[in-house]
Amino acid sequence: MSISMFFSPRFKVKRVFLSAALLVAPAACNTVQQQPSSPSASAEIKAPVSITYKEGQLISIITSVPKTGENARQAIATYGATAFPLASKHGLKREGQLLVKAAPVGDHKPVVTVFYSWPSETAEAAFNAEPAWPAIKDTRADAWDELRVYTDLVEKDMTLTFDPNKTYTLAMAWTNPENPHDYDVYMKGIEGAVAQSGGRFVYKMFDPEFESHSLDDGAPGQVTLVEWDTPQGLENFGETKGFKDNVKYLSSGVTRFEIIALSVS
After folding, report:
1. Nearest to 123, CA basis, from 60, 61, 79, 58
2. What is the pLDDT of residue 115?
3. The dihedral of CA 187, 64, 107, 239: what is its sign?
4. Share of the chain above pLDDT 70, in %
5. In the predicted model, is pLDDT for residue 21 greater than 60?
6. Chain centroid to CA 78
7. Are 100 and 167 in contact (CB under 8 A)?
């Protein structure tokens, strides 16, 4: 039974978008995604890759659906050539990326998920105040059908480790203001079922800063990254008693819910 059968598109809530820097740009940097070019490189890809964030930094997780065609490719190239250098001046760093394997729940179907860091909230604010930024930002719609950024303050030092032998899911939940605590009940209730299915909660964003030029649902209440031992982990989780006993709280606790499945390569 497909995990998507347990969820359905729900209602939408409008909210004013918060300002955030969204920069998907080619860069010479360490990325979680690795492309082997030789037998030795293929062997190296089996090693986990880690990204470290320090207290006081900002973590940004970005998903994108690029437009097709030459005009879009040129728009993406121009955006990267202007936005990324401007943001780098304020300390933005591209940390890595994961490939999107599937979108089992919801209608958001990005091709890649990219991780960035800002040195601080002050650095991000200084970038957003750059006179050139608004005009550059307005060109996103020429390059992407959908482009989202979820940004959060890092409250304590942490390291995100991605294992090429594991599968990852990123869940985005727009909590229901009429039942604000039901999603919390759901998340607490499924902890055992996630562990039973070979899953581990890796990172949770609560009320992240959010921006999209195409989605009018406002900011999600929570973004959750889970690591699974096998590609079937999410599917197995959907069959557990723990999930089935608590899915009613998911249904009542969100107005929109999406999951994307990720891999290192």
Report:
1. 58
2. 98
3. negative
4. 83
5. no
6. 24
7. no
Domain 3-32+51-263 CATH class label: alpha beta
The string of pLDDT tens digits covering residues 99-129 is 999 999 999 999 999 999 999 999 999 999 9
Instruction: Work out the average pLDDT over 178-185.
Output: 95
Rounded CA-CA distance 104/38 in Å is 33
CA dihedral 225, 231, 232, 233 (to 10 degrees): -30
Contacts of 172 (CB under 8 A, 6+ apart): 106, 108, 150, 220, 222, 223, 256, 257, 258, 259
Q: Whats the size of the chain, residue-wise?
A: 265
Q: Which of 10-24, 41-55, 125-139 has the highest mean pLDDT?
A: 125-139
* Average pLDDT score over the chain: 87
pLDDT above 70 (res 29): no
Q: Which residues contact 102 (CB under 8 A, 6 or more apart)?
A: 260, 261
Task: With CA atoms as reference, report the closest residue to 152 among 209, 202, 224.
Answer: 209
Per-domain residue ranges for the chain? Answer: 3-32+51-263
Q: What is the dihedral of CA 20, 144, 163, 189, to 10 degrees?
A: 70
What stretches of the chain show up as alpha helix (H) in DSSP? Answer: 39-44, 70-88, 121-128, 133-137, 140-143, 182-189, 191-196, 233-238, 241-253
Alpha carbon distance 201, 191 (integer Å): 9
